[in-house]
Structures are given as structure tokens and as C-alpha cells.
Design goal:
Two copies of one chain form a homodimer.
Chain A lengths: L1 H12 L17 H8 L1 H18 L4 H4 L2 H25 L5 H10 L1 H33 L7 H18 L2 H30 L12 E2 L11 H15 L7 H5 L8 H30 L7 H4 E2 L15 H9 L4 H35 L13 H22 L3 H30 L6 H32 L4 H29 L15 E6 L5 H12 L4 E8 L2 H13 L5 E6 L6 H14 L4 E10 L11 H10 L5 E9 L44
Parallel strand pairs in A: 3-4, 3-6, 4-5, 6-7
Antiparallel strand pairs in A: 1-2
């Protein structure tokens, strides 16, 4: 079974030799590349945030949608505070690690654990949301995909997973190109649209003629309370535009020196770009009259009053805008939409890059199985990557690739991290402020603390709004997932602490450093062959106090043959034959070793097992099955060490070079190469051997 | 992964402690029990054979069905010859093993292989056919099951598989009761029906009013050629009644002494019972006017000419007879049908009992992975049983639980075995005849040879008829499966022979018995704790030529801590720190061992790895991952023995008793309990150690 898994892994991960050359430590990158590599997460959220804002406002009909630029402005304001705060985080924690490090250092390990759990859930949702959104953009330009976005999204997750597993350098390059391409095409669209608007040439979207049917609660127009609730909902959905800004704070080490300064400047640039894109998109969306609702079939009707029906396919807002602006040059519309779709899908690769690093960080603090610490180990990283791929595919299936549903889940996790991180920074400044050396430094710190205090207030309020307004829409699932991840991490940590405590050497406890008195070597044999001969030779070479070979009488004919060969070759070790009335090997051997151990508790029993090493995984099924079982059982017997003596099948057809017995440390113990020891009587009651 | 499988296995197989007490060798049984335990296979085939005969003849309309008792008589004749022949086999091969042994001993191992392959396929089909037939009987008395026989059959295979896995004694007892119960209820039905016929009170079946539409080729009445073909087809289908008679020849060892005589007499009795049942059923079926066709929807119509339609449910013949005979006492009809259904399902358990024995026999000759030789080992037997369950469930699904289709597959395999076995016995007598001591013995042998010659002729003709008339109806699949099983067995045997050849010790080749010159002990450590201390102590106890501890610098903080603890505790072994730029453990250790080996090719490297033995399978995921990988990679490096030093977590909270160093065999090698060796400088270029 494990070997079959190995074969499958090799198929996906590449040839086995690669495993011997793990990826080297990534070299720091120039600002341009590092920024582009870390930006897609933030950029992608700006691509789908307008849809969520417009959709929330559309519940009150087109009058509501007109509010969208103002909601966008409010989100841009929060974004500015959050980005200012993360620029501070970058300067204070230039080693990277982001929210997790901030929480751990300032609020304790358990707060770090919560952030870590949230980050794990967020990485699942980053993939699920951005790939689902990407699938909708592709559906806008590839006819026939409209009603298969779920299958397309799951397929794309598979592609990104495999690409991440193989660690293609090409993927990194594509991400960089796509990030700048995205800025370029969206900028081009905004610019062209803006010019068209100024010159009065801006057309209306093809969807412009549709009417939005307001929800029942809004059909008598907007009340003050109604507007308030509406804006809150739109704000809490649009807050998803903030996701991804923390990626740069996490990946400071990706940048070239001066790392912190480069990262902070990049974050500032990214924040400006995101804010401009968000507001620009919403303004333009209003001008061209986009129509975007949660459920087109029930919420939209033609001007003549007929509902659009289930066949209607609603395009994402950026696609609607691009289609309008470039209605005269369709190929440009296709290009713009394709680049946006590509960026959304590649944004998922940020999470795949980030998860092994996150797990490594968590593993270092005992929150994850310790093998994850070695994130450069392909196989270890593969576990994280495959889990991420499967988990996000599962979420996509669960949400039917609905970006709106997934966004509800996503925001909760992100804002948990944001809030805890802001709180951590606040404590950080509180602790640092009394240590300030000059009034200027104190002034700077007080300003920084204010930024974090405002940030904490805003993100905490946003989190509260999201949890309250969206609890039944999926926030409960997010909270459950974060709690589950946290619970898992805490129990792993608890296990490691318990084990470490059990294994701790007390200063007055030197018992385990004492040597066992005698060493009894037992060679497990089943037939007389070169593998057996090697095991006997190796066991003898260790010069044990006593040595004997043991076989289990499963097949009388075979035992007789072994006995004859043993005597004929004059093997200088006693052969003991254990009886097994039920043709079983493990039981008699363990019983025999137990009696040996009972006779002398302080002694060490070394069991040498000849092992045939096969060349193909499926051949393993044909060899060593009893030995494997025996070994797994013997693990539970104290004072027994199992040594496997491998024989590499097919490795060399010629016999091994004859090794002359080298002068051993003590000549009286060195056994002659093949002393003519008289054949021992079958199974003498005591342990005997030439070295005993 | 393997541990998860283990947990699942425990769930199905029972508590893990059971593994320590494998089933003891089955005790020989008195004739009554042994016969009943081995009979269901043969009895069950008599239950469904009449259906197949009637169905084949019904192609020519009711006129054809009237021939059924004569076909039954012909089959009973063949059965008499085959049974006479197997009685001889029992006497000549009282050790059991049946057809496989006969073929192997007289026709060579490859003929045995073919019989073995056929027997494997037959065991799949025994289960598939008898459980499908059983499902149809239950459908006759449980309303609502009529159109779900496939699901019912697959579910029942699952039940029998689990029961066989757990080796319930209750199952054996149920089989014995069901076998006699079957004889009782079918006998009662025949007797009652016979009396009713004599007294003129025998009613007609409820299906009697239906008309059978003859196939196109028969609609102008019966020609001589037509009758011939019809009878051949009916004969070849009805020949399935012979299956199961070989079971007793295979299981001679189940009987109490005198085994051979008891088995031969039992077989005779069973043959008589089967022949009587077959002919009795067919006669009675004709008298009550049963109607049984391959496809009721197209082949049956009501007297008024309307087809019966797809809703019509056709009952098996024995159920139709019982329903007619006991029409006045419905509960008896229910009882009779239930007992027949139960016997059919329990007949499958014969195959489950037989498969581990068959695989053990094949494994002894190298035809199967050798672990199957230990058939009393629960885990090993479980593999065979689960494979049988899944395979037969697959066949049922493939055939839609149609007994008719499965029977076509079944007969091919059975008659391959029959024919080869008869041929083997013929050669057996040919070889024995010249050695006869007296004319009386010669006479007896010649008679026996004649029986086998007739048997060979009949079974070979039957096989040819089945293959020719049924090739496109499934015989091709049977032949393919038998060939596949044979190919698998031959390739396993070839692999073992190749390995044995490679490992064979030539008389002039004593190279592997030579001792390696020096032993270099390396203890792999990652942290200083009691498990590490134990590994160091054990490694020192083996008094190697040189000893050192090795760690890989994955986490600098951890290495520093280890270094300090090492020096503080004055561990009397040098600690070498290997650099790992990419945080990987396996590579640096292997590279280091390779350089050691290059320096002294004839030396032996013993790597001691402290292993934490966890109590729950899922905890394994948290420990020893690097060690496991290292071990699997090191298997391919020559001259390296890996010794795992287990620490049983949670086994004892108190420290191990301090062991005073016992007087060693050579005092100059015995290391003092904890010599105050000065802390070694980090990683000296040569291998050093206190024992060096």
C-alpha cells in the first residue's frame, strides 16, 4: 500500500531522483519580481469585490447599486489604515511570518495558534474563491462553459495543484507576467472607459436594459434603517477586497535587501493600486449601468416584465465593463477577460506557495507534525499541497463554485487574523513605548500605536458585522473550520510536550546512559542462502556475548533442508529450531525472545533479520512479510533491537569481494573466517555460539 | 496509510489480541459433521441445475421441457462416473489436495498450475453463483426483493465475507444444520409431491397457465438436428450439477480416521443424494408443469396471447414446486424456500473456507506469495477472503446476479479441473499398473483405470461442448480469468526462482561467510533525551570498532540545545553535526555513510536509530517520519545495517532500572558506565570513540 502510494507520488511529483535534490532555498528577488509574485492574492480580491458590493446593494434594486462607489470609498479607507498598519509590521518584524509572528510574540503562543488555524482555513478559501471567480471569467469568453463553472473550477484547482507539486519555475514566471498584465489590462480598460465617459462616447452594457426586482423588504423604497443595513451588508461583503494585503508582510524575505524597506514600499504601491482599481471599477460600473445580482433567474426581468429565466448567464462586473468599453474591438475584450481570469487562477498559487511555509512555521512551534518543519522536502511539502488542493476542491463543490457563498466564508478567517494581528501590534507598541530613547521616537511610536488602534477598531467592527450578518450564510462553517484547525494544532502540540516530558533526562537520572550487561545476537533465518550468510557474518562481526541462529518450523521439508545446508556449510553459529504448531512465525520468535529477556533482564537482545531489497515496489509483496510483521510486533518488547541486514536483489550478479577478516580490536573475540565447528545438536537448551 | 488499513482490519477482524492466538489446527470431525460441512457446494448446484436444464429446453417451447428428466438422467450417469473416479482419488491421495495434487503429481507442476488457476476462478464463481441463486429464493418469499436481487446478492456476499473473516464457529454449525435441513425439506417436498401424484391430488403450478413462446428456430417444431442441439445445450448447462463433488476429495483431512474410507463413503452417499434430488426435481417439475425461461418478458405470454410484461417475476423451480405441493399450507412453502435459500448462501462459505487452504498449497509450490503458506495466520487468510468477496461481488454485478450467465462461466473452470484431474488419474494407473503385486490388484487397477478413462472421455466432451456452445456467452471470460490466474502464478514462481538462484551459495563461494573487518557504529540523534540515551548505550554495548553520534543541522536552535545537553551530560561518544543547507535529513546522512564506506569498503556500518513506539496508529504520523525514510533509502546502500532502538512511549513512567555493567567477555573492551570523557571538538575529521 505505501509503495503504491509512492508510485502514484512519483507519477505526479516526477522521477524519484528528484527527491535527492530538494529545491534549494529561494534566492531573494528584486522588488519588481517579488511584488508581482506576492501581489496576485490582493489584486484578485479587488477583481471580485465589486461584484459582491453591487450584488449586496442590488437587493434594494438599482437605486441601491448607485451607492456602490461610496461603499468602495469606505472600504478603501479601511484598506488605507490596514496597509499603514502592515507597513509598520513589516518594519518591526522584517524576518517575515506576518500575523502569526505578531500574535505569537505579543499575545502568546495560543493567540498565534488561532491565527495559524485561521491562516490554514484562509489558504483553502483563497484557492476556492479565486479559482471559482476565474472560472466565471473564462465562462464569459468561452461559450459552453457557462453552466459548468463548478467542474471547470475543480479542474483548474487540479492543474494548479499539480503545477505546484512539480514546483515549476514556469509557474513563477507566469505569475509575474499575469500580475503586470492584470494591472495593464484593467488600467487600459479604466483609462479607455474614462476617456469615453469624458467624450460622451461611453455606451451602456448589454445587460443595461434589464430591471432588478428589489427584495420584498425593499419594494416600498429605501428607509434610513434599510439603507444602513444595506450599506453594512455591502461593506462586509466588499471587505473581501482587503484580503491578500497581509501576504507581503508575510513574505518580506522574498525581497532583496533592504528587505523591510522594499517590502513596505511595495505594500504601499499595492495598496494604492488596489484602492484605485476598486473605486475606479465601481464608478465605471455605475456609468455603464452593470447589472449584477445574487440569483439572476429570480431577480432580473426584461423591460417588458418577463423574467430572464434560468438560461440567462450573468458575467462578472469587470467582464461587463470590458465588453462595453471594447464593444467595437471584441478581441481586446477577450484579451482583458482572459488576463483577469488567468490572474485569478494564479492567485491560488500564492496559497500553494504559502502553505508549506506556514506549516513549517507552525511545526517549529510544535503545532504541526514535525516533518512539516522541513518545508524544502518535496514529499513533506506535497502533503500540504495535496491537502490544500483537495480541501479547496471540496469547498468549491460544497458552494457550487459560487464566489458569493465562498466569500462569506473567506472574510471571517481573514478578519480573525487581521483583528488579532492589530491587537498584537497595539500591545507591541504599548510595550515598546516606555523604552523609547527620544521624544521623536516616542512620538513615532505613539503615531504607530494610533494607526493600530484605529485598525483594530475597524477590523474588529468589520469582523463583528460579518459574523453577525453572515452567521447563517456560512460564517458558522468558517468559525468551525478555524476552531477545528486550532484544536488539531493544540492537540499535536500537547502530544509532543507529553512525549518530551516522558523522555526528558532528569539531572539525577543517568539510568539510560548505563550499558546493558551482555548482548545476545539472534539471526532470524528461513533458508540457507547468501542473504542469510551475510546476516550471520554481520552479526558475528559485532562480537556479541552470545550468538545463535533461529528458525521457525513452519514447513518441515524446508527446515530439514536448512538444517542440512547449515551443517554442510559448517556455519559457525548454532541453529535453533522453534516449533510452531500453527505455522506462524511471529508468535514463537517473540515468545522465545521473551524467555531470553526474563532470564537476564539487563541484557540486550539484538535480532538480525536478513532482508531482501527488491527493485520494484510490487515485488515487496513477495518478500519480507513475516519479517515486517515481526519487527512491528517486536517494537513493543523492551530491550530488543532489530537490525535489518539488507541484500540488494539484482544489484550485483557477481559475488561480493571476499573480505579477509581484519585484525579485530580484541584478538580473542575475532572468529576465524569459517572455523570447522562440529554441527551443533538441534536446539540445545542454552544459548551458545563461538563468540559466547 | 498502512496503519489506517490496520485499524480497518482490526474493526473487521476483531480485537488485535486475537492475532496473538491464531486459529488452532482444525480437529478432524465425525463423518456426519464433516460430510455436512463439505456437502453444501454439491447440494447447492443440484438446487439450481434443474432451472438451467429447463431453461435451455424451453427455447423449443413446452415440448422441449418434457425432455428434462432424460437430460437429468444423462447428467446423473456422468455424475456416477465422476464420483466413482473421485472415490478412487480419495483412496490414492488420502492427504487431500484434490485435483491440484493429482495434476501436479502425475502431469507435472505446470498442469497443477492450470488446475490451481481454474480452482481460484471456480471459488469466485461458487460464491457468485450460489449467492445469486440464494437471493432469488429469498425474493420468492420476501415481497419487494424481486427487482433487487443484485443488491441483495452483493449484500449477502458481504455478510458471508465478514463472517468468514471473523471465523465464527457459529458459521460452521449453521452450515451443518442447513445441509441436513436442505436434505430434509427437499426430501419432504419430493415425498409429499410424490404421494400427491400417486393419489392424483398433485395440483398445477400457479405459472401453469402461461405459454412459452419458442425461439424462432424452433417455431416449426422439432427436427432431429434441433433436438440434438437442444439436448446438448441443456446437458452442458445442467452439468453444473456436478460441481462441488470434488470438495470432499479435497477435504479428506476434515474427516476422522479412517479418513479415506469415511470420505469415500461420504462421497458415495452425497452422489446418490444429488442424483436422486436432480431426477426427482425434474420429474416433479414436469408433473406440476413448471415454467422457467431465460427471459420471461419476451418468452412468456398468457393464454390469451398477451405477453407477461417486465413486471412478471419468475420463481426458481424448487420454489415453484414447493409452492404447488404446499399450496394448502403456505408456512411450509415459506420454510422450504427459506432453507433452500439459506443453504445456497452458506454454500458460498465452502469457498471461503477452501481458498486459504488452496492458496497455502499453491504458496508451498511457489505459485503464490509465500506468506499465504501460513494459512492459519488470520491476516494472511484475510487477504484471500477479502479478495474472494470483492471478486465475486464484482462478478455478480457484471452478470446482474443472473444465475444462468454465471453458470456458463462456472462450468468452464470446473470442467477444466475435472478433465485434467481425470487425465492425471489415468497416468497414475498407467504408472502403477506394471508394479501391481498380484493379478487381483492388477485387475482392480485396470478397472480403476477404465473408470478414469470413461470419466476423462465424458468430462472432456462436456468441456468441449460447453466451450463451443457457450464461447460467446461467457466461456471466453472464464478462459481469460483462468489464463490470467495461471499467468500470475507462473510469474510469482519465476520471481522466486530467480531470487533463489541469485542467493544460492555455490559450493566454492564462501565469500559471504567472511566477516567484515571493522564495525563502525553511528547513532542518529536529533535531541538529547532518554530514547537517545538508550540508543547510545545499546550501541556502546555492542563494542564497535568506532562509535559516534550524528545529527543533521536542520534547526540551528535545536542543534545548539543538543550540543549543550550532550556536553553537560558528558555523553562518552563524539557528536558529529552534519550540515544540511536545505533542511533535509536523509541526504546528508546517506552522503556521510557513503564517504565512510568509500574509505574502507570491507567495513560494516551499523546505524542505530532511536525510535519512539507510539500506542495509537494515528500517532505514528507525528514521529519517526525522517527515520522511516532514511531506513527505506539506506536499504539500497551496501554494507549498512540499520538497527532501530525502540522506546515504548507511555509503557513505563518510572525510569528503567539502572543496569550495572556486567563483566564482559573481554575486559579490555568493556566501557566504564559513564566515563568522564572531555567534550569532543565539533565534528573531528576522523571517526573516534571510546571503544575505538
Amino acid at each position: 500500500m505505501p509503495d503504491l502510494m509512492g508510485a502514484l507520488k512519483r507519477l505526479v511529483l516526477g522521477r524519484p531522483t528528484r527527491e535527492f535534490a530538494p529545491r534549494t532555498k529561494p534566492r531573494p528577488l528584486p522588488v519588481r519580481s517579488a511584488l508581482a509574485l506576492l501581489a496576485p492574492d490582493a489584486l484578485s480580491s479587488v477583481a471580485y469585490a465589486p461584484d459582491e458590493i453591487v450584488l449586496a446593494l442590488a437587493a434594494a434594486g438599482l437605486a441601491g447599486v448607485a451607492l456602490s462607489p461610496w461603499v468602495g470609498l469606505a472600504i478603501a479607507g479601511v484598506m488605507a489604515v490596514v496597509i499603514a498598519s502592515y507597513r509598520q509590521t513589516i518594519k518591526e518584524y522584517p524576518q517575515g511570518g506576518g500575523d502569526y509572528t505578531v500574535a505569537k510574540e505579543n499575545l502568546g503562543l495560543m493567540a498565534g495558534g488561532v491565527v495559524g488555524g485561521a491562516a490554514m482555513v484562509d489558504s483553502l478559501l483563497t484557492v476556492a474563491v479565486s479559482v471559482s471567480a476565474g472560472a466565471h471569467y473564462f465562462a464569459a469568453i468561452v461559450p459552453g462553459l457557462e453552466h459548468h463553472t463548478q467542474a471547470v473550477a475543480i479542474g483548474l484547482v487540479g492543474v494548479v495543484t499539480v503545477a505546484s507539486l512539480r514546483g515549476l519555475k514556469l509557474l513563477d514566471k507566469t505569475v509575474i507576467v499575469a500580475a503586470y498584465g492584470f494591472l495593464g489590462v484593467v488600467g487600459l480598460t479604466a483609462l479607455t472607459g474614462g476617456l469615453q465617459a469624458l467624450t460622451g462616447n461611453l455606451a451602456a452594457t448589454p445587460a443595461h436594459g434589464l430591471e432588478v426586482i428589489p427584495a420584498a423588504s425593499y419594494e416600498h423604497g429605501l428607509t434610513v434603517l434599510g439603507v444602513g443595513l444595506l450599506v453594512l451588508r455591502a461593506f462586509s461583503s466588499g471587505a473581501v477586497a482587503l484580503t491578500g494585503v497581509q501576504t507581503i508582510a508575510t513574505g518580506v524575505q522574498t525581497f532583496r535587501e533592504p528587505k523591510a524597506r522594499n517590502a513596505a514600499r511595495s505594500l504601499g504601491f499595492l495598496g494604492l493600486a488596489c484602492a484605485a482599481l476598486l473605486i475606479g471599477t465601481l464608478v465605471l460600473a455605475n456609468r455603464v449601468g452593470v447589472v449584477f445580482v445574487a440569483d439572476p433567474a429570480t431577480q432580473l426581468r426584461y423591460a417588458n416584465g418577463t423574467p430572464v429565466g434560468p438560461e440567462y448567464h450573468q458575467e462578472p462586473i469587470l467582464a461587463q465593463i470590458a465588453e462595453t468599453v471594447f464593444s467595437a474591438v471584441r478581441p481586446v475584450f477577450f484579451l482583458v477577460t482572459a488576463v483577469i481570469g488567468l490572474l485569478l487562477i494564479l492567485a491560488a498559487s500564492t496559497a500553494f506557495r504559502w502553505v508549506p511555509a506556514l506549516m513549517s512555521m507552525l511545526a517549529q512551534d510544535g503545532f504541526m507534525p514535525k516533518q512539516f518543519f522541513r518545508r524544502s522536502d518535496r514529499r513533506v511539502a506535497a502533503h500540504g499541497i495535496v491537502t490544500l488542493g483537495l480541501g479547496s476542491a471540496g469547498l468549491i463543490a460544497l458552494a457550487g463554485a459560487s464566489v458569493t457563498r465562498l466569500v462569506q466564508l473567506y472574510i471571517v478567517g481573514v478578519f480573525i487574523s487581521f483583528t488579532i494581528s492589530q491587537l498584537g501590534m497595539l500591545r507591541h507598541w504599548n510595550a515598546r513605548l516606555p523604552l523609547a530613547q527620544s521624544s521623536r521616537e516616542r512620538h513615532r511610536m505613539a503615531g504607530a500605536r494610533l494607526v493600530n488602534a484605529v485598525g483594530l477598531g475597524l477590523t474588529a467592527v468589520a469582523l463583528a458585522i460579518v459574523v453577525v450578518t453572515k452567521f447563517t450564510h456560512g460564517a458558522w462553517l468558517s468559525l468551525g473550520l478555524v476552531a477545528g484547525a486550532f484544536g488539531f494544532m493544540v492537540s499535536v502540540r500537547w502530544h509532543y510536550r507529553k512525549v518530551a516530558e516522558e523522555l526528558r533526562i532528569a539531572s539525577d537520572d543517568r539510568a539510560d546512559l548505563g550499558l546493558p550487561g551482555r548482548v545476545h545476537a539472534i539471526v532470524l533465518v528461513s533458508a540457507m542462502n547468501r542473504a542469510t550468510a551475510r546476516a550471520v557474518a554481520y552479526a558475528r562481526a559485532t562480537r556479541p556475548t552470545t550468538i545463535e541462529a533461529v528458525t521457525v518450523a513452519v514447513d518441515m521439508a524446508q527446515v530439514g533442508q536448512l538444517r542440512r545446508a547449515w551443517d554442510e556449510l559448517r556455519v559457525p553459529v548454532t541453529l535453533r529450531i522453534l516449533d510452531s504448531p500453527v505455522r506462524e512465525i511471529t508468535g514463537p520468535v517473540i515468545a522465545y525472545i521473551r524467555t531470553l529477556r526474563q532470564r537476564a533482564t539487563g541484557d540486550l537482545v539484538m535480532l538480525y533479520i536478513p532482508e531482501k531489497v527488491v527493485r520494484h515496489w510490487w515485488e515487496r509483496w513477495l518478500h519480507n512479510r513475516s519479517a515486517d510483521r515481526l519487527m512491528s510486533r517486536l517494537r513493543h518488547v523492551r530491550g530488543v533491537v532489530v537490525a535489518t541486514v539488507p541484500w540488494q536483489l539484482g544489484a550485483a550478479s557477481s559475488p561480493a569481494p571476499a573480505v579477509p577478516p581484519a585484525p579485530a580490536a580484541s584478538p580473542d573475540l575475532a572468529a576465524p573466517p569459517a572455523p570447522p565447528v562440529p554441527p551443533a545438536p538441534a536446539a540445545p537448551p542454552e544459548l551458545t555460539g563461538p563468540a559466547g
